[in-house]
């Protein structure tokens, strides 16, 4: 077989890291079905291109990058769909029920949406996916210094917005 990741190595990577990749997708997307689809598609794509993954030790990094890219694509499609459809009214029993929770959640979501895309990605990978800065840099294909800068600026921006809404 030509140089590259073997099917056996990819199978072992699947067994060992499927749940962590699913968790990564879950932090970037918001529904389980989309997360599972993204992770499965990532494995399919890496399997198809496994001969190009010359160093088997980088298989997980390729998978992470593919999950991030596919999540971005899913979000772009979702945003386009939301622009085309009108929003339905929330299905709530009363105006008081859950109002405070909605306000807090809306403030955080709005603050996260207000961040630059890279800042949001760095914060999600670094703090919610519990990756090291080096792993985040490798996953996103940016330098370690960029990861630190995006993370620092993202946290500062979140702090300002959240304190102002409190």
UniProtKB/TrEMBL annotation:
One Gene Ontology term from the biological process aspect of the record: DNA-templated transcription initiation
Keyword line: DNA-binding, Sigma factor, Transcription, Transcription regulation
Domain RNA polymerase sigma-70 region stretches: 14-78
Domain (RNA polymerase sigma factor 70 region 4 type) ranges: 106-158
Keyword Transcription appears in the UniProt entry: yes
Molecular functions per Gene Ontology: DNA binding; sigma factor activity
InterPro entries from the UniProt entry: RNA_pol_sigma-70-like, RNA_pol_sigma-70_dom, RNA_pol_sigma-E_actinobac, RNA_pol_sigma70_r2, RNA_pol_sigma70_r4_t2, RNA_pol_sigma_r2, RNA_pol_sigma_r3/r4-like, WH-like_DNA-bd_sf
Pfam families (alphabetical): Sigma70_r2, Sigma70_r4_2
Family membership: Belongs to the sigma-70 factor family. ECF subfamily.
Protein name, as recorded: RNA polymerase sigma factor
Native species: Streptomyces aurantiacus
